[in-house]
Write a structure and sequence with these properties.
The chain is of the alpha+beta class. It has a three-stranded antiparallel beta sheet, covered by helices on one side. Helices cover 31% and strands 26% of the residues. β2 and β3 form a beta hairpin. It starts with 15 loop residues before the first helix and ends with a helix. α1 packs across α2. The radius of gyration is 16 Å and the shape is globular. The chain has four helices and three strands, in the order αβαββαα.
């Protein structure tokens, strides 16, 4: 049996640097606890005011797939992902194909908590180039 798998690398290395910057920012935000990704439908102590929609990412590397999904959500203005789920497909050749998906959401704004400001506004206020500037 022969399987033909498509490549996610259309266009060669054209967008590789831009994508890696977005992945690193997403990794940093997630690991610092500023961008929660949860399997539940809500986050305790935070009120969801806007659902931005489904975000997903697929690939052969689990880290790139997870942080790619987070990066896409952040570029939409999300402050978290709820309802996170992942699937792994095992192919006969021994490779694994990962799919990560969840719902990107925004929280109620609390002026007393500077971390609850949307990331796009935080970057604009500090003058940083972020995911939205490179995509």
């Amino acid at each position: 049996m022969f399987f033909l798998l498509g490549s996610d690398k259309k266009g060669g290395n054209r967008g590789k640097k831009q994508n890696s910057e977005g992945l690193e920012e997403a990794r940093e935000m997630f690991l610092s606890g500023k961008f929660p990704v949860v399997t539940t439908s809500e986050i305790e102590g935070r009120r969801i005011v806007k659902v931005l929609g489904l975000v997903c990412c697929r690939g052969f590397d689990s880290d790139e797939t997870f942080f790619g999904m987070a990066s896409r959500a952040m570029s939409k203005g999300a402050q978290a992902i709820i309802g996170y789920n992942e699937n792994v497909a095992f192919h006969p050749d021994g490779s694994k194909y990962f799919s990560c998906y969840g719902t990107a959401v925004m929280f109620d704004y609390d002026p007393a908590d500077p971390d609850c400001m949307p990331f796009m506004l935080q970057r604009a206020r500090s003058g940083q180039r972020g995911i939205d500037a490179v995509m």
